[in-house]
Task: inverse folding
């Protein structure tokens, strides 16, 4: 009997989490329609304060690489999308429940196949590191954010997802922005 339970848990695509109900499967079109039905609460989008980096040159270089990697893997070379992702990472550094370092936020949960904060860290994408002309631009955007530049378009958002999916947490948060195909949220 225990063997059956172990095999069943290994075959399960999404780990069981107490209090979390599995969403029914949706097509991309259904997910987009569902997400479109959730209004953007622009009034809940509060401006983020400029980020104040505290660390030396080596820590700054590492933070720039972590931010640029997250931006490039999450949204490609889209400038607005990169700035939005970078802002979310910086917002998480100061938010409860997240690591206190930029790289800690980016790689939180990387050791799991599900449950990582940024999918590229646990879905195998990072092992396929590409040569991309967007690296230098992503690093420039990361350096600007560490120097205090704020991307106001997402405010203090700490969560986001692509519009073609509906994460289990969506309805517990307030949608505050849309940048291209990504939707941004703050905690209620």
Result:
């Amino acid at each position: 009997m225990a063997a059956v339970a172990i095999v069943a848990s290994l075959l399960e695509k999404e780990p069981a989490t107490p209090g979390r109900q599995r969403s029914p499967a949706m097509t991309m079109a259904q997910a987009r329609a569902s997400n479109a039905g959730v209004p953007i609460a622009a009034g809940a989008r509060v401006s983020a304060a400029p980020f104040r980096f505290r660390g030396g040159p080596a820590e700054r270089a590492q933070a720039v690489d972590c931010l640029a990697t997250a931006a490039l893997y999450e949204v490609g070379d889209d400038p607005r999308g990169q700035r939005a992702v970078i802002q979310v990472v910086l917002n998480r550094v100061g938010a409860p429940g997240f690591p206190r370092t930029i790289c800690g936020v980016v790689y939180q949960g990387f050791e799991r196949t599900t449950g990582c904060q940024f999918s590229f860290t646990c879905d195998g994408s990072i092992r396929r590191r590409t040569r991309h002309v967007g690296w230098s631009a992503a690093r420039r955007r990361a350096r600007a954010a560490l120097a205090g530049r704020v991307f106001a378009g997402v405010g203090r958002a700490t969560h986001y997802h692509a519009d073609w999916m509906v994460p289990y947490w969506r309805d517990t948060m307030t949608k505050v922005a849309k940048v291209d195909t990504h939707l941004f949220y703050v905690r209620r």
Remarks:
- The chain is about 40% helix and 10% strand.
- Residues 1-20 have pLDDT under 50 and may be disordered.
- The longest strand covers residues 173-179.
